[in-house]
Write a structure and sequence with these properties.
641 residues; alpha/beta; Purple Acid Phosphatase, chain A, domain 2; 5'-nucleotidase,  domain 2; six-stranded mixed sheet; 18 helices; 27% helix; 18% strand; binds 2-acetamido-2-deoxy-beta-D-glucopyranose; YHR202W_N; Pesterase_C1039; signal
């Protein structure tokens, strides 16, 4: 029945681009791209979302559509004698069933990804968490993009010889096809420390002292430095690189591309040096252009100062048609249709449309304040965790579970909850562990420490970054004061952490655009960055964004019936709605163990995480726990399938 339906959908959609089940794009008011001598398209933090967003029209184009888009843009700019370069700044893996649900992981995505021609790309941190995934980079993706994949500060232990070798070339120098612009390009990763021990990430500060880098930036025959990296554009790492290059070249243009924080962002280092970050999850195709660069040493004739532009393109066909002046019959190419088909076939092979249940309402990570009935976190702590974790409790013991909010990666939309939904919600393989008989007051203090004493945790040896950088969703990082857009006063989070006011990073209605009668605005990104508020290609109405704590917790009843604890306090600290137990079995996601260890020490709890903790619930992951709850509680009504 289901497969027949899918087959029919597949047939009826064969002339269209995008995935057959993707929603149609919604017309919206648009801003145009400003093409220059040198143009860029940029993806970052795609995390396996090569099928696009099948529940959100604004981001429903797939990797095949992006291939068609890039090829049309290339034709257009090359017809004017200009150049186009494609960039990807890593975190291509983990975060979507298309990557995570195959065995081995990534069985389909590397082949799909390589169908796009990319001129310069690099690794993210996610490629390096596991031995397998970094080896896949070395053995598959680096060769797929031979010469274009750069790794300025990553080494890997060669899987065959065991020798330490660069993951990919440190840098490259090349000349653009149309104009002969001489470019020196680097590919960095931020100062990441949680990688598996088969890779070595050298801190950027050290890399830029190395001879090869010093030689590369002393090259006099360069028209543009191109620094790409899985690095926030506003970061110490990029400031250091910027200063090192400027130390040698006081006025050569520098274009940075960055990522990691999952935000749209643009940084101005000086009049001739800018950095673009292009969002996450195939929601955004970043566009940048430069006019007035010298070509092969010939001074630019257009102006003495180069001009830089940027746009954040919503990844949907409405945007793609608009910027290419094409339509549904003229836009797709043979290759883009092939790639859309490859994605469709992989999704079928992985059974990503398998339905576990039907979600009665939208549940949000950050669009509503926490706690809230529409918050995913409230749903987890009130329903999912108490119900499912209770089945793993020791007899006559009360449990307290702590999970980090960053373990959740995406919203849940009303409607079918599929295999795909489960992997988008939480792609991680992290399972639960627990410590026995922890005094309840200590357990509560542990949660307090994780949520409020981030400074202590930031000083963890080797951590180098605050707890919120790893425990909370990455988007939230950008709201921390120290890394906020300089010119963007409003996004500075001057509120106490507990305050629940909407943050303004994505939330500025005063776009300065005349309101257009039609088509009308739909909710989406309303970015303010170093160049102003006209960066989004699509003129949206704003979406609220609320801060969440680093961690949430739930009390778990002592028997398998959860009725007696159906309403624990909705606050991140456990309230007095339940009778206080003397001790609890403290259950946590193993991902947060390093922070738990530090927090146990800080509150003086006598728990050695290496010796005193055990696997909980047979090693089931958070994703499996959620799926079980959905199967038991969100039955589809007849006919919903
Ligand atoms: C955008 O470009 C199209 C042609 O491609 C043009 O008709 C339209 O006027 C431009 N819009 C703006 C706001 O410049
Ligand atoms: C690594 O990949 C191999 C072969 O593809 C697979 O057998 C193995 O289970 C993987 N290991 C992990 C930890 O995923
Ligand atoms: C890397 O970690 C593994 C455990 O995951 C350990 O067995 C191995 O000895 C470590 N290798 C090095 C070089 O530290
Ligand atoms: C698409 O554009 C072509 C060429 O401009 C035109 O002939 C065709 O009718 C258009 N198709 C649709 C569906 O708008
Ligand atoms: C598309 O796929 C077909 C059949 O698999 C193949 O023959 C053709 O070369 C492909 N074309 C492109 C442009 O990838
Ligand atoms: C939240 O849901 C609970 C139970 O479903 C209900 O009793 C309560 O009124 C709801 N709260 C709000 C603010 O809607
Ligand atoms: C749990 O409590 C019940 C009732 O108080 C008691 O009968 C049972 O023996 C206890 N089980 C364990 C394992 O302590
Ligand atoms: C920035 O914020 C401060 C205090 O919040 C305010 O006094 C100042 O005027 C603001 N600056 C700009 C440029 O808006």
């Amino acid at each position: 029945m289901t497969s027949l339906l899918l087959a029919l959908l597949g047939l009826s959609a064969s002339t269209l681009a995008a995935q057959p089940s993707a929603p149609k794009p919604i017309p919206a008011p648009m801003r145009n791209l400003t093409f220059g001598q040198l143009n860029f398209l940029h993806t970052t933090d795609t995390h396996g979302w090569l099928a696009g967003h099948l529940r959100e029209p604004s981001y429903a184009a797939d990797w095949g559509d992006y291939i068609a888009f890039a090829s049309h843009i290339r034709e257009k700019v090359e017809a004017d004698g200009a150049d186009l370069l494609l960039i990807d700044t890593g975190d291509r893996i983990e975060g979507n069933g298309l990557y995570d649900s195959s065995e081995p992981k990534g069985l389909y995505t590397a082949d799909i990804f390589k169908q796009q021609h990319i001129d310069v790309l690099c690794s993210g941190n996610h490629e390096l968490y596991k031995k397998n995934s970094s080896e896949d980079e070395y053995l598959i993706t680096v060769p797929n993009f031979k010469g274009n994949y750069l790794s300025s500060n990553i080494d890997i232990m060669n899987p065959q010889s065991g020798e330490r070798v660069p993951l990919a070339p440190r840098f490259k120098k090349f000349i653009t096809q149309k104009q002969g612009i001489r470019i020196v390009a680097f590919g960095f990763l931020f100062d990441f420390t949680q990688n598996y021990n088969n890779t070595i990430v050298q801190p950027v500060e050290e890399t830029i002292k190395e001879q090869w880098f010093q030689d590369a930036i002393r090259d006099k025959d360069v028209d543009l430095f191109l620094v790409i990296g899985h690095v926030p554009v506003q970061s110490k790492e990029y400031t250091d690189i910027y200063k090192a290059i400027r130390g040698m070249h006081w006025d050569t243009p520098i274009q940075f591309f960055g990522g990691h924080q999952h935000i749209r962002d643009y940084a101005k280092y000086d009049e001739k040096a800018y950095g673009l970050a292009s969002g996450r999850f195939m929601e955004t195709i970043g566009f940048a252009s430069i006019n007035g660069v010298s070509t092969g040493g010939k001074k630019a004739s257009i102006s003495t100062n180069p001009t830089f532009t940027r746009k954040y393109i919503d990844n949907n066909l409405w945007s793609f048609y608009h910027h290419t002046n094409l339509n549904e019959s003229t836009f797709p190419t043979q290759q883009s249709k092939n790639v859309s088909k490859m994605i469709e076939n992989a999704r079928h092979a992985l059974n990503l449309d398998h339905i576990y249940g039907c979600t009665p309402q939208d549940l949000w990570m950050s669009r509503v304040q926490y706690p809230h009935n529409d918050s995913i976190y409230t749903w987890l702590e009130k329903q999912v965790l108490p119900d499912i974790l209770s089945t793993g409790m020791r007899a006559n013991k009360t449990g307290m579970a702590i999970i980090n909010t960053g373990a959740i990666r995406f919203d849940i939309f009303k409607g079918p909850f599929t295999q795909d939904t489960a992997f988008m919600l939480s792609p991680f393989t992290s399972a639960f562990r627990y410590a026995k008989d922890v005094p309840y007051d200590k357990a509560k203090q542990v949660l307090e420490v994780l949520n409020r004493q981030m400074k202590i945790l930031a000083e963890m040896p080797g951590s180098g970054l605050s707890a919120s950088a790893f425990l909370a969703p990455p988007e939230q990082l950008a709201m921390d004061k120290d890394i906020v857009v300089d010119d963007d006063n409003e996004s500075q989070v001057q509120l106490p952490k507990s305050d629940q006011k909407p943050l303004s990073l994505y939330n500025d209605d005063d776009s300065g655009e005349p309101s257009e009668p039609s088509p009308s605005r739909i909710p989406g990104y309303t970015t303010k960055d170093a160049a102003g508020d006209d960066g989004d290609d699509t003129i949206h109405s704003p979406i609220s964004y609320y801060r969440v704590p680093n961690c949430i917790s739930a009390l778990i009843a002592e028997s398998s019936s959860s009725s007696s604890f159906s309403s624990p306090s909705p606050s991140p600290t456990l309230g007095n709605a339940v009778a206080d137990p003397q001790t609890v079995d403290l259950v946590y996601l193993d991902f947060i163990e390093p922070w738990m260890e530090q927090a146990f020490k800080f509150v003086g709890a006598d728990v050695d995480v290496k010796k005193d903790t055990e696997v909980f619930l047979d090693g089931n992951t958070l994703t499996q726990v959620v799926v079980r709850w959905v199967e038991e509680n969100w039955k589809c009504k007849d006919g919903a399938e």
